[in-house]
Design a protein that fits this description.
single chain, transferase, methionyl-tRNA formyltransferase activity, Methionyl-tRNA Fmet Formyltransferase, Chain A, domain 2, 14 strands, 7-stranded mixed β-sheet, Rossmann fold, 7 helices, Formyl_transf_N_sf, Formyl transferase
Amino acid sequence: MTDRPRIVLFAYSEVGCLCLEELLRLGANVAGVFTHDDDPDEEIWFRSVRDIALKNGVPVWAPKKLDEAEIELYRSLGAELVFSFYYRAMIPKKILEAPRLGAYNMHGALLPKYRGRACVNWAVLNGETKTGATLHVMTEKADRGDIVDREAVEIKFTDSAHDVFMKVAEAARKIIARKLPELEAGTAPRVPQNEAEATYFGRRRPEDGRIDWNRSAVEIYNLVRAVTHPFPGAFAYIGGRKYYIWRARPIEGEAKPGEIVSYRPLVVGTGAGLLKILSIQPEGGEEGECLR
């Protein structure tokens, strides 16, 4: 038995895995974990929260919804502290208000900037050079609660969204390691967000990856690295066929937007500069196949 506060997690993805592992490493009293079943239509590139919980003897559930039955199950766990680590559903008010030490969410950006979904992908797409992780108080309005701690990471010009996501996951782990004692003691700081600095970005869909060749080569490059593997990918139509562009880089030069300047190497004109395509895949074909 332990006299440390009982913690219940709502967790998924690599952030959920790293933060759960950190809590266990620190000897936290994790009473239960709620997670998700993997979507068979999604490329699963991250480890399993469920597997980590079960390996460590922590009860785990993956309900499709958080309805009254799930709320009653949650109550039976006697949670004193709640964390959400990349859980994909809104957590009901009845859960947020219950724990005496509060409920906290880990967001993959430096709040109040980049509230909303797909914040890492948006940051890369927008050419940001910095992002990070933020632990904040959960409220009914997503990403609006007081900030407990933040950890910044660099976005290099060569980083893909996956590269940045892994940096953000490690930043989240560092925050948990740093703040758990204060959170368990109920003494963690809470700093209100500055609404004047807030920005919001919505969910990204696969069709949002379509390339507009009138954009600059740098903007198109940012799109490519923002949605390349393991995400759905940037794409364009050439001769009526859909092609995914997985790797590219901007180079100097001029040509009409969408004009193929050369085939070996494959270089395409944009609104400003040229895009050299390094990896391409026709829909239904193999990645790397060259255009004929």
